[in-house]
Specification:
single chain; 42% strand
């Protein structure tokens, strides 16, 4: 019985060794495979758009965004009202309760040709205190 046991054990052992060798060689990279190359980091080129006159409302509102933050309400010359996050107008520090008329230029990502949402203040045209901001 021992010789019959040895003869049936040898093919099983040989099959096991061949399987292990095949599995280990599959885990190794080919010497001809190229290492993955990361995409280059995108660095935007920011340019300023044409100056626009905006009326900044005297109150702040919660931004319609995923992050909790305060927004300024801005009204453009055509009467449309939109939100600008509180610190997204460079060089502009508004005071609560004061309505401003400003000249500002939108920042544009030149490579993607779209607005970034940030603005650069040109000048404050006028400002007035509002007695009861809402």
């Amino acid at each position: 019985m021992s010789s019959a046991y040895k003869s049936s054990k040898t093919p099983l052992l040989l099959v096991g060794l061949l399987s292990a060798t095949a599995l280990l060689s599959a885990c190794q990279t080919s010497p001809f495979a190229k290492d993955p190359v990361p995409e280059p980091r995108y660095v935007p080129s920011i340019v300023l758009g044409d100056a626009q006159t905006l009326t900044i409302m005297p109150n702040r509102v919660a931004c319609a965004s995923a992050l909790p933050m305060q927004c300024l309400l801005a009204k453009s010359k055509d009467g449309s009202v939109f939100q600008i996050p509180y610190d997204w107008i460079e060089d502009f520090q508004p005071t609560l309760g004061t309505e401003y008329v400003i000249s500002a230029r939108p920042q544009i990502d030149e490579g993607k040709q779209n607005l970034t949402g940030y603005w650069t203040l040109q000048n404050i045209v006028s400002q007035r205190m509002v007695s009861n901001p809402q």
